[in-house]
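ok trying this again, last paste got cut off
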Amino acid sequence: MMIDNKMKFSKKVNDNERGFSTIELIMVIVIAGIMMAVALPKLGVVNTIDLESVTRQIKSDIRYTQEMAMSKYKKATITFDSNLDTYTITSTGSSESKELPERSKAIFNAVGTGTTNLVFTFNSSGEPVTGAGGTLRITSEGSYNEIMVENMTGRATIQ
């Protein structure tokens, strides 16, 4: 009698065991595909965000250099060295060197000057010294932004 009960129990348990159906597997693959299709285009946005933040930071540093010249009543200069991807802010008696963030993969160069370096010098009124305006291009993985510094006012704008 005990053997009969074991066999019935064993048969009942084994009848209830089932694997995944083909439709269930297909549904999982379709859902995973949809999730990947939504997520993959977003990965490219990260580089654009980095480029935007680097551009805003450099524009802010150009403005900072201009304000420093006005507050100290002395010339202040920001020099971009594209060979090293660094830039330096100098005023009488002080110098501050900055690097582009390594993870940004951004590089910069002067537009239309025939040189890779670009120098913006502001006088005590915040105006660029003669010919000190220009355009700085910041490039990251095929995309770029440009910062233009106006010749007369020294106003920096992102284009």
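PB: full thing came through this time. The beta strands are 76-81, 86-91, 94-99, 106-111, 118-122, 134-140, 143-149, 156-158.
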